[in-house]
Design a protein that fits this description.
The protein is of the alpha/beta class. The chain is 18% helix and 29% strand. A hairpin with a 2-residue loop joins strand 2 (21-28) and strand 3. The structure holds zinc ion (2 copies).
């Protein structure tokens, strides 16, 4: 299987990074998964896609849902069965605050499926579980368990340890690191992680592959060079748009 970073910035895009989107094109033989739908969603326009696309939203902040409005073009002229997953508040915000609102003229055209935090669901034969993170207006950590592999996606969370049991033992951990340690006050105020928080989470997970994403778009260089994250997490991968990993 593959995981591709469609967008690796938090908050807003910059010249090199769009906002949140993690794409698993081969989650099942006929099913692709998209984790969050920020502005990076435009990268799916015109691409070869399997017949079914499952979009999992972690929360309703704009950097995670703005790209839902691009689905019109993603699906234009072809048959793709799209299903949108999220907790009740997130689905409500997407359907009524983003779509069919002063922000966008048309209704959301696809079925939705509510995620109850903590309860497992099966999607295309994959076990999907979630955990409610500490973030303004909440955010879901998502975990995907195939028969032999697992992947956890933890974005937009304060740097606490409440979710460490949830991510323990995953093969792949994709985790946010919005701020360097020197901006820990800002991280706390906005419910985000610093380098040190990422390091603690990576160690707690024991993941074989750790990839960081959701970077401060004002950072001009590789964000993991800050705080010497490469030395603290051996093999850590710095997410960048269009990076594709095999797992
Ligand atoms: Zn975000
Ligand atoms: Zn957020």
């Amino acid at each position: 299987m593959h995981v591709e970073f469609l967008g690796t910035a938090g908050f807003h895009p910059n010249a090199h990074r769009h906002t949140a989107g993690i794409f698993i094109p081969d989650a099942a033989p006929d099913d692709a998964f998209l984790l969050d739908a920020g502005t990076g969603t435009w990268r799916l326009i015109g691409r070869d896609l399997p017949p079914r696309l499952h979009i999992f939203l972690t929360h309703a902040h704009l950097d995670h849902i703005a790209g839902l409005t691009y689905l019109l073009d993603v699906c234009f002229g072809r048959e793709i069965e799209v299903t949108l997953y999220g907790d009740a508040a997130t689905l409500h915000a997407a359907r009524t605050s983003l779509f069919e609102s002063p922000l966008f003229p048309l209704p959301f055209a696809h079925p939705t499926c509510e995620i109850a935090p903590g309860e497992a669901l099966q999607v295309a034969g994959v076990k999907v579980t979630s955990f409610l993170l500490t973030h303004p207006n909440d955010c879901l950590a998502l975990r995907f368990d195939w028969s032999h592999k697992s992947l956890a996606y933890v974005t937009d969370t304060a740097g606490d340890d409440r979710y460490f049991d949830f991510i323990h033992g995953v093969d792949v951990l994709i985790h946010e690191r919005n701020f360097p340690d020197r901006l820990s006050g800002l991280a706390q105020a906005s419910g985000h992680c610093t380098s040190s928080d990422l390091v603690r989470a990576a160690r707690a997970s024991g993941a074989k592959i750790v990839a960081a994403t959701h970077f401060n778009p004002l950072t001009p260089t590789d964000p993991l060079l800050e705080d010497d994250v490469y030395a603290q997490i051996p093999g850590v991968i710095s997410g960048r748009d269009e990076l594709c990993l095999e797992f």
